[in-house]
Amino acid sequence: MKSTSLSHVRNFELEEQIRKLNKIGIALSSEQDLNRLLEVIVREARAFTHADGGSLYIREKDRLNFTVAQTESLDKRGEKRKPFTSFYLPLSKESIAGYVALTGEILNIKDVYEVPDEVEYKINKVFDNQNNYRSQSMLVVPMRDTDGEIIGVLQLINSLSDDGIVSVFKTEYEALVHSLASQAAVAIRNVKLLNEIKSLFKSLVRYSAKAIDARSPHTAGHSGRVAKFSVRIAEAINDESNGGLKDVNFSPVEIEELRMAGWLHDIGKIGVRESVLEKANKLNIDQMNTVYERFESIKQSIEKKYLQAELNLLRNGQTANPGEVKGRKAQCDKEIAQVEQVFEFLQRINVPGYLVEDDLKLLKCIHRRTFVDRLGNEKKYLLPEEYEHLAIIKGNLTKGEYREIQAHVSHTLDILEKMPFTKEMAKIPDYAAAHHELMDGSGYPRGLRGDEIPVQARIMCIADIFDALNSPDRPYKKATPLERTLQILQEDAEAGKLDPHIVDMFIRRKLYQRPISEDED
């Protein structure tokens, strides 16, 4: 009867251990941070076996990375100790962990100080000596993944009885901890694989953004800087305890999502012609050369007109009066000089800026002028498309070109919506496609206003404007001085275009001051 009762107790205990093991397995599979996962593995294994201490080693080719060390009794002492930092051990049978990693054996040692001389492994007493600790019983198991490869070693130290006495690890723990170690190995492999996929995704995102930026030497690095400024702003918002941003908080996943959106915010520029992206003046060099060649023809036609008049006199047997010849020559030179002045005027207004009313009137007069080319055909001083470009009142883009530039946001949304983002990155298309929306509804492409614009997009909008203004030499302008750039941000915030709380914090905390380096993430 007593034997039957004991058997029931053992079965109950075994079932309870298995339930615990399953629960731990679920917990391991849900953890995606590798460092936290390794800590959880050791902590759960210690709790499972009532171990005072535990260590975890990850195998990396011909060495072991000692990544985790936990000792509860030392923590309870309250003594000041140097924080543990991971380090490498040679992969050899001389150490207990190395022996298990190479052989795949499970070691359940009663007292590591009394290991027989004939075995290959020995206890390293450095930790014990440094911390006034006595390692005694030890259970060491290999961590095998689904391919049977040993990827690490789990080492448990000093199993404690209910009254705190160090005892040997129970034999039944061996299979259970081995099973736990296998689950842990799979979890580690999955997290590493997930990290590799994430790293690959980040690399693809960054190289794609850099490739888009590289289409124009003037925007090189812009996407990366916008991403970094955006993350910096978000992290600063998390530190705000007063004001309009005190209730806004971003989780690490949301900050990573914002970073990726920043990198990808201009990917739609792949659908914009380089001639528009790189447009420095109203007419490009080739177009201006065409105008120059035409004006040279105009000057030649003027000279031809006066030479023809001289020739007609000679043919009619008339003798040219020296005074008349001189007068006609002066008139010819005057007309040529006027043509040259017109061309100089066209060169002046070709530069981006604001076209004043008087200049626009003069341009209209020039556009109406005609000349006769060498073939006798009447032609205009300016072609319709040339006039359209030169008549731009502000900036250097025509309405059509400006619409094409604006369309890059729609292209961005189209491209990103087709990408299979994970659940935690699902908002990247929305944030990236809203970085030109303004609080007063005057932005594009959807004309969102106020709270319709996600905070992440408002952050990116400010980062984008700051970098565009403050970056050296865009093709259409010089870099705006920092003081003026900040003033523009303030003016736009006061005008209701930018989020005033974010702009205020950006300037107040001088988030623009710290240099943006390539390795800042």
Task: Pick out its properties.
7-stranded antiparallel beta sheet, Hypothetical protein af1432, single chain, 11 strands, two-stranded antiparallel ribbon, alpha+beta, Beta-Lactamase, 54% helix, 521 residues
Helix content: 40-55%
Q: What is Rg?
A: 38 Å
Order of helices and strands: HHEEHEHEHEEEHHHHHHEHEEHEHHHHH
Task: Give average pLDDT, whole number.
Answer: 86
> CATH homologous superfamily of the largest domain?
GAF domain
Largest sheet: 7 strands, antiparallel
In the CATH hierarchy, the third-tier topology of the largest domain is known as Beta-Lactamase
Strand content: 5-15%
How many helices? The count is 18
Name of the top-level CATH class of the largest domain: Alpha Beta
Q: What structural class is derived from the secondary structure elements?
A: alpha+beta
Could you tell me the number of beta strands? 11
Count of domain modules: 3
Q: What is the end-to-end distance?
A: 68 Å
* CATH architecture annotation name of the largest domain: 2-Layer Sandwich
Shape designation? elongated
The stretches of 5 or more residues where confidence is low (pLDDT under 50) are none
